[in-house]
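Weekly sync notes, structure subgroup
Attendees: PM, AL, DS (notes)

Item 1: joint prediction request from the bench team. They want all two components modeled as one assembly rather than separately. Inputs as received:
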Amino acid sequence: MKNFSIAKSRRLRSTPYTSRIEEQGVTAYTIYNHMLLPAAFGSIENSYHHLKEHVQIWDVAAERQVEISGKDSAELVQLMTCRDLSKSKDGRCYYCPIIDDNAGLINDPVVLRLNENKWWISIADTDVILFAKGLAIGNNFDVKIKEPNVDIFAVQGPKSFMLMEKVFGEKITKLKFFGFDYFDFGGAKHLIAQSGWSKQGGYEIYVENTEAGLKLYDHLFEIGKEFNVKPGCPNLIERIESGLLSHGNDMDNGDNPYECGFDKYINIDNDINFLGKEKLKEIKLQGIKKKLMGVKLDIDKISITGSLDLTDQDSNVIGELRSACYSPHFKKVIGIAMMKKSHWDIDQDLKVKINGDICSGKVCDLPFI
Amino acid sequence: MKNFSIAKSRRLRSTPYTSRIEEQGVTAYTIYNHMLLPAAFGSIENSYHHLKEHVQIWDVAAERQVEISGKDSAELVQLMTCRDLSKSKDGRCYYCPIIDDNAGLINDPVVLRLNENKWWISIADTDVILFAKGLAIGNNFDVKIKEPNVDIFAVQGPKSFMLMEKVFGEKITKLKFFGFDYFDFGGAKHLIAQSGWSKQGGYEIYVENTEAGLKLYDHLFEIGKEFNVKPGCPNLIERIESGLLSHGNDMDNGDNPYECGFDKYINIDNDINFLGKEKLKEIKLQGIKKKLMGVKLDIDKISITGSLDLTDQDSNVIGELRSACYSPHFKKVIGIAMMKKSHWDIDQDLKVKINGDICSGKVCDLPFI
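Output from the run, pasted for the record:
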């Protein structure tokens, strides 16, 4: 595929780490929440192998926070998600589909409960802050809504635990998955969660004090040499192999959470109040007609810039391929597709036309690994 | 400045014209409303000269529409903007600042009144649809809100009038600035407005029938040879010289409409109901403390990727440069800056540090030309 430059401007905001990653060899960007998000440091496949063995530091400041605080904050956050947050605890992260009144997905953030009256919604790439403001104004809620000055960087990969222990001591290894706490470095306190956009393990550092965050960023590279630390970014191959969904790529406002396999994050059976609840009950009763599944294609490269139709032997459309990459693990192309109900059987044959050539493949379960 | 590639994916949506502009020589993209927006076809300066003399066709499908229809649609649209729409007319476009309850700018769209109960909000780069949905749900409005299948392409430049007359006949030359009507081509009806992201004159074609739109796109290139038609895109130099503001670049949610010079689009003196009205009254009473102005710098190139501090002789910050380019007209760099009240005097001296070098310049009025 031909390469095109990104035309930078103030509207595509840089992060505090941008000048560093540009010295460290970033080669491609995507845009996420109106911000630069690194997409490659040279070969994505080399970076994938490194991520699965060692440790990487990622500039993911584009994961913006929507801060909701005040007396009615819990009510507003619950109104936006079909996941029951009534028993949520301080210091925990919750993966929460945000849906509209028609049950269409608006975002799939991780919600951090700082305390009962203060929440951070760590968003995927849509302006959830505008939805929250509209709802708060319309409902006359007593809340404050803002985008705080938080620029996350992530430490990901199997050696991230050793690297972070070297800085923060044993305490950080006690942090459970999706737990967060505050940790000191050089006199500054950072909120750190055990989380991240990979399945290789690691941490996300929610930097509020920019200068202190940059010192920590630099320090991790300095002391991380023994763990073969490298700069990196969310890796297309690793995230698809692991079945980590990406809002806007794999699902969007035209899909509901059942169709995305989010059943365990949907609570329609108790009395919590959220948008789209009646619609979700209806959908559950009628059953869904499409859902996200994996596909494996008998080819060794692909570049997806939009949906591709998947067809049966008679050229009837049976699904839509939305993300895909060559998987070094399976030695073929794998992808995430929205499949019609008639074609949910595992190992179902399918075809797809790519640049004029017909390729064959099969349906499979998610995650791949 | 170093070039970085854009990492394409389904989330950064292509337009119906993407494959055409890639054959026609697009070299850089920006992202706008989660969509590819061409930013350069080779030299921006060459394209600027061509735009001011001839005619260009632009893929601006990234100008997405938020369609608001139904009984309460006029009430909702008015609630979102400080511009009085009570006397608005069908078939007219209105430039409308959208603000939140704190009078911070959310977007600066052009609003098209299709009829009393159907409006299109042709948005800048924020998810206004989420704000509208939140407000509608919270207020229990009887409205439908959706992003319709509309992919705009624009015909811009002084010869756009002759080119469009050749296709649509004399009728289209009667269209007034910011007026729109429906015009036939090859059996398909297109909404066409006399509007666009340049001050060189022209039209925007709101394509609902994709196939018919592509035929018109191709036809315009075919018959436009006598007018020296070329592919193009919103031009950084032309838009800055003309003082066309860009939301996210020149102003954002931290600015109010008075600070952006939108006084004539603010109606706080009658009884229309919109968000932020009380706040605007307060701001007017107290007076603003910063506003957008022009600056001219005694240098011959610049590349802006974020705000740059403008300082006085004693290095006190007096403003913030937000957009800038080399202007062939003025033979120096010009830019758009948010200036502190103490430094609104025309011809006021200022300094700015760019890549370590101190450059000098002066404050001036907007627009430049």
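Discussion: Chain B has a mean pLDDT of 97.
Action: AL to compare against the crosslinking data before next sync.
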